[in-house]
Amino acid sequence: MAGTCELGLLLALLLPVVSASLPGTMVRLNKAALNYVSEIGKAPLGRALQVTVPNFLDRSGEAHQSTRIQILDVHVPRLHLKFIAGFGIHMSATANFTVQVFCVPKPLEMVLPVVLLADARVAQASIGTPEVSISTCFSLFSPVTVLDVSNSTSPSLLLLVRKHIQAVLSNKLCLRISSLVQGLNIHLGTLIGLNPVGPESQIRYSVTHLPTITSDYISLDVSAVLFLLNKPILLPGDATPFLLPWPVGTGAMATVVLSQHMFDSVFLLLQKAGSLNMDITGQLNSEDNLLTTSALGWLIPEVASQFPEPMPVVLKVQLGATPAASLHTNNATLQLQPFVDVLAVSSNSAFQTLFSMDVLVNLSLQLFVSKTKLRGTTSVLGDVQISVAASNVGSIDMDQVHILMGSVFEKPLLDHLNALLDMGIALPSVVNLRYINPEVSICEGYVVISSGLSYQH
């Protein structure tokens, strides 16, 4: 992974940057991805080419004779796609049409091989998705192979039927390919759908520029916008712009680059949604419950004086400052600065503030990909720093309280935060597409995800 990050820094110096601040996300698909599409695309292409051939009307005799023709099967043994630099994709395919001709006295079956050639332009649609359109398309026909050599159909009729079939296919095959591409565009349109992040928050991706296409890959600049209650989450105006380097070539089908801006936006969303706020309580009847006034009373005499009988204590955790994520080579960290009110339940069931604390927690952030989501988990780095912000119970010996608060605060905070991060953030994808065998590399100011792809019907 270190080599990936170092190469990325080198490319950042040698190659032009693609954006500042936004889009903050880039997706690159290489030849391996195109080869995968070629393999899984054979069956859909074969189905798309299953056209209807009208009856052949033989006008050579005195009485016109109609011959029914049916395509029994279309097998695509070869489909090859390659990038056309600055334009799009070239397609070449071989399709074998098994055709039944209902001749008299005996039906005839034959195989007609066809080579299909097409060029497709890849552009940016007005709705913010990639858009594919066929610019040129034509078909080349090979001689037919009659499956039953004993069939007595006259060669002249066979020639006329073959010409009839070729004329029909010449008109219809490219139309079917164009129709297949239109269906692909509808599928690509699912890239811009809203994906939930939490109960009232979503993320939406869209392509912001024309794709960059070389003979080796296609790159898409992608904007990621997060919404809370249908309103976009925007970073403050003084946020430092991030220059996104050209994604590194790892050999994986797909490379996804996520900038610092993306992570800043995600944690700003979690803060504004209140997802990071929490209440920490203990079981009053539990023997090892430290969240009681009696436990605090051993350390703070005024608490013992005000609460002679054990009462529950609640830690009300609120995050005023936005969590700060830092991305460095092979190292991601997260800093939280929660404000904690220590409350006790009085005899009349009302909450009474005992004291308040400023807390500083540094966390190690581990990232991984599952299906189409970037997920994470955290662990505490060093000591949790605690200081008294205000007190209604006189002076407090923080050395003693620090030990107690650290033990009751740290685990619930980690459990809560890890549950949030495990929900994950949807990565750029379309319906039924999954990332497989992904590798996550942490680099200076950005994250690289290198992955294979799997399309599940």
TrEMBL record:
SUPFAM superfamilies: Bactericidal permeability-increasing protein, BPI
SMART domains named in the record: BPI2
InterPro entries, per the entry: Bactericidal_perm-incr_a/b_dom (IPR017943), BPI_fold-BPI/LBP (IPR051660), Lipid-bd_serum_glycop_C (IPR001124), Lipid-bd_serum_glycop_N (IPR017942)
Source superkingdom: Eukaryota
Keyword terms of this UniProt record: Signal
GO molecular function, one term: lipid binding
Keyword Phosphoprotein: no
Lipid-binding serum glycoprotein C-terminal domain ranges (all copies): 248-451
Gene3D superfamilies, per database record: Bactericidal permeability-increasing protein, domain 1, Bactericidal permeability-increasing protein, domain 2
Annotated signal sequence range: 1-20
Family: Belongs to the BPI/LBP/Plunc superfamily. BPI/LBP family.
Name this polypeptide is given: BPI fold-containing family B member 2
Organism of derivation: Castor canadensis (American beaver)
Gene it is expressed from: Bpifb2
